[in-house]
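Read as chain and fold; for instance:
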Amino acid sequence: MITASIVVYNSPVAQLRKAVECILRARIGHLWIVYNGPDENSCLYDSIPGTTFLKVENRGFGAGHNEAIARAAQSGSDYHLVMNADIWWNGDVITPLAELMDSDREIALAAPEVRYPDGRLQYSCRMLPTPFNLFARRFLPERAISRMDNRYLLKDLDHTAPINAPYLIGCFMMLRMSVLEQTGAFDERYFMYPEDIDLTRRLHSRWKTLYLPDQTIVHEHQQESKKNLRMLRIHLVNMIRYFNKWGWFFDSERRRFNRQLRKH
């Protein structure tokens, strides 16, 4: 059985409905809309056909999905899809990914190719970031960091072939539930942003975390932390928490995973 969840705060309703329609093209056992926004706006999201509405306290993106993942575990789900509201695709992306995971039980996380609405490739599989990677991407001009950024985004790897990456962005993550029972789901110390890095690397240390380009989705990525000072502050605070957990300059696992990638 496949289950899925979308966490929403102030997502455009038309955009959310489009994402829901895409999910429901597959055989989904349950789809939760996890709402962590103001009570007065909940009526916008609580009656979308094919979904179960879940109102929760706003403890962040990962915590919201954890509410659904806990219910998915109780329902006996085999795979759980964590997805953003700003995603859409043509056809059925979910079933082929689940079938591939059925065929290889070493895959803990599967994610498709991601493109922007204009067709450009979004580099969704990445090296584990250093502090300089993330802070330079926010505050330095692109021309000054282009070489470093190309390495971090794995631009020189063949993105037409599968990549076993230690960091897959969290806009679309197909997760094996039996693995989450062993490792736990999202770390709730992060309100937003690095929860996908943290989860992918924890899974990657024992299983495959695969970028699979045979399936493609479209991500209408807004990059709010580059436009909104409040979101930038949230981003920085949570990245500090990430590096406090894993290590700022001495992270042997990061070094090992990234060197393995560079060998390909």
About this structure: The chain has a mean pLDDT of 93. The CA atoms of residues 66 and 211 lie 22 Å apart.
